[in-house]
Design goal:
The chain is mostly beta strands. It is 14% helix and 43% strand.
C-alpha cells in the first residue's frame, strides 16, 4: 500500500482553488468561545481591527498564511489585513453567539487593491458602491491605527483664548496623506465646531504682496466632533489625496467656532507636507 504525502504548498493551492468557487466574502462572524481561522494567499504582514472587542492574532515574527479572529459581544467593526505581497483585504466583522463557519479560505481576487500604487494602476472615474465602502473601511482602520501611535512630526500648534489647535502627525499610506489633528479646550466654555479647513496659500513676491488660497477637500474624516467640552481634548484625522508643496507655498489649518469668535489659523511649512511619516 502506497503512502501519499501532501505538501503544504499543494494543500494551500488546493484550498485556494476551492475558495475561488465560493461567493465573495463581505462579513465574517466570530465569538469568544472559538477561534475563527482566516487563510490568505500570501503570509500576513499586518492585521488591524476597528474595535477592541475584536482580536485578530497572527505570527508577527515568522509570517504565516493564517490568522485567528475572536470577538466579544458588541457592535460590528471591520478587519483590515495586508499580506506580504502588498495586497489589502477589508471585511466587516460581527459577533455571533452560534457560529456555522470556523474557517475562511480567501482568494487573491478578494483583495481591494495594493498597499502601494504601481505604474499600471489606473484611476477609475466611477467607483462602485462596494469599492467606496471598502475604501472607507480602509481609511477608518488606518486612521485608528495612527491615533493609537505616539509618533509625531514636531510641535506645530496655535493657542487663543484657551483653545489650542495642533498638528501632531502626517502619515503617508498608499496614495493618501493622513493629518492627525489635536484640538484642546482649556477654557471654561464648551467649543462648538463650525468647520476645520485645510487650504494651500501661495505667497506672491514684490512690493504688493498678496496670497492665493486654494481649499483642499478631504476624501475622508475620522472622529470629527461637533462639540468639544470645556477641559476636554479630541483627536481627529483628515485624509487627503497625496500632494506636495514648493518653497513659496504653505498649508493652513483654519478652525472656526460656531456662534463665537475663538478662531485659529495654524500655518504648516512645506517641509512637513513633503516629509510625512
Amino acid at each position: 500500500m502506497k503512502n501519499y504525502t501532501l505538501t503544504t504548498a499543494a494543500l494551500l493551492a488546493f484550498l485556494f482553488t476551492c475558495a475561488q468557487t465560493e461567493e465573495k466574502l463581505d462579513t465574517i462572524f466570530a465569538n469568544e468561545l472559538k477561534n475563527v481561522a482566516l487563510f490568505f494567499p500570501s503570509p500576513i504582514s499586518q492585521g488591524i481591527t476597528g474595535n477592541d472587542h475584536f482580536v485578530f492574532t497572527y505570527n508577527r515574527e515568522k509570517q504565516q498564511h493564517f490568522g485567528l479572529l475572536q470577538a466579544r459581544p458588541g457592535e460590528e467593526s471591520n478587519l483590515l489585513v495586508i499580506d506580504a505581497a502588498g495586497s489589502v483585504y477589508s471585511y466587516i466583522i460581527k459577533y455571533k453567539k452560534a457560529l456555522s463557519r470556523l474557517n475562511y479560505f480567501i482568494g487573491k481576487s478578494e483583495s481591494i487593491g495594493p498597499e502601494k500604487a504601481t505604474a499600471i494602476d489606473t484611476v477609475k472615474s466611477v467607483k462602485s458602491e462596494k469599492e467606496l465602502r471598502n475604501n472607507s473601511h480602509y481609511y477608518q482602520s488606518y486612521s485608528r491605527y495612527l491615533l493609537s501611535k505616539k509618533e509625531r512630526i514636531g510641535r506645530i500648534s496655535k493657542k487663543q483664548q484657551g483653545i489650542e489647535l495642533s498638528l501632531e502627525n502626517i502619515g503617508f499610506n498608499r496614495k493618501e496623506l493622513y493629518f492627525v489633528i489635536l484640538i484642546e479646550n482649556k477654557s471654561s466654555l464648551d467649543y462648538d465646531l463650525n468647520y476645520l479647513n485645510l487650504s494651500i496659500h501661495t505667497r506672491q513676491k514684490g512690493k504688493k504682496k498678496s496670497s492665493q488660497r486654494i481649499l483642499k477637500e478631504p476624501i475622508f474624516q475620522f472622529e470629527v466632533p461637533a462639540k468639544i467640552r470645556k477641559g476636554r481634548a479630541t483627536k481627529l484625522v483628515y485624509v487627503f489625496p497625496k500632494f506636495s508643496l514648493s518653497r513659496d507655498r504653505r498649508a493652513v489649518l483654519e478652525l472656526k467656532e460656531k456662534d463665537g469668535e475663538r478662531d485659529l489659523k495654524l500655518k504648516i511649512s512645506h517641509r512637513f507636507i513633503n516629509n510625512p511619516n
